[in-house]
# Entry
Amino acid sequence: MHLLLGQTLTFTADPFDAPVDACVQHETTGAVAIEAGRIVAVGPADEIRAACPDAPVTDHGGALLSPGFVDAHVHYPQTAIIASWGKRLIDWLNTYTFPEEARFADPAHAAEIAARYFDLTLAAGTTTTVSFATIHPESVDAYFTEARARGLRALAGKTCMDRNAPANLSDTAKSAYDDSKRLLEKWHGADRLGYVITPRFAPTSTPEQLEALGALWAEHPDVLMQTHLSEQHEEIAWVAELYPEARDYTDVYDRFGLIGDGALMGHAIHLTARERDRLKEAGANLIHCPTSNTFIGSGLFDMAGLKAAGHTIGLATDTGGGSSFSMLRTMAAAYEVAHLRGTVLHPAQLWWLATQGSAQSLRLGDRIGTLAPGYEADIIAVDLASTPAIAQRAARADTLWEALFPTIMMGDDRAIAATYVAGRRV
Ligand code: GUN
Ligand code: ZN
# Structure
């Protein structure tokens, strides 16, 4: 048993569905009790300390104890090419992304970048990531090996591409199926790791490959499936050319059994009414990647409309199309994107999306993303006065939300005072 002291924040409901005050429990002087990697109690510090008088204590002072962030869509192999200048999606892939991803044929490179990636994300307070690897099985091994050594709950899959990619980055329908199946059997459920079936997106897969991966998913419905959907207009037009028989982009995936309640659809910006209805009906999860959408000029995700219609939505950096490793910066971008669509997101809604919202989209809402008994102890201590600019604004705050919002808008890894993975400080 071990106690962390600080402010505690627990969501008891989705703050998009009910008034914020009805969705949160906040203790200004709170404590979290941890045992064997799990949270066993959360509440007022005096009560928890009285109940466990002999437990060692780590006092985080006025810092906010929160679940670690859950980043629902990333490309760890793009770590070293983040913030590459001047291209829209297809050009950006061909110019920057594919040459870098080709380097992951070398396991030593994959291992080096995987270690660097987890160093950066843990420093940013992110304790669970869902990554596209490259087409190389070794790139999946490198990610999971590193995540396992650090005790992380982490998800990923081999990216599958069998057309419209360089020859050294192309697999086939059969090898994609075989390699994905082998990796799934090797890694899914090992410690806290989860495999994700990963066709990159419709333009880089033949119908035969999508069919093979749809079949694999039907054989393993307990794993998730991730891909990209309706990110940029040029991409959507290209998909219509490549799949003339499909009604729309969503229908391409649907025809091969790749739309369902374990589907993580990255971006999902330019959807028709039919696509929205179909995605909702199938229970597919939409993953909002706001820094990516502004950085590569993709468009403005309809958070308010889609949440109101009942879609499950996760939040993600989309590193390295996204311009940050930080979910704080990602929340800020989500706020700005929503504002440009005429709606205002509450700090509680942003924080919920970055923790419990993303966790729910991964079917992990009962294990991570909430500070409550029984949950895995992936916890961060957030300093709400981490820079002079933030501190002087937070000093004026009368409520938790007013104190938190400057950190959401201006915070970075300096705001993450501590990160705990399964109860262990890293
Ligand atoms: N669509 C297909 N591949 C990618 C990628 O790597 N990043 C982004 N942002 N969109 C994609
Ligand atoms: Zn992506």
About this structure: The pocket of guanine (ligand 1) is lined by residues 75, 89, 93, 97, 200-201, 228, 231, 292, 318, 321 (CB under 6 Å). The longest strand covers residues 24-35.
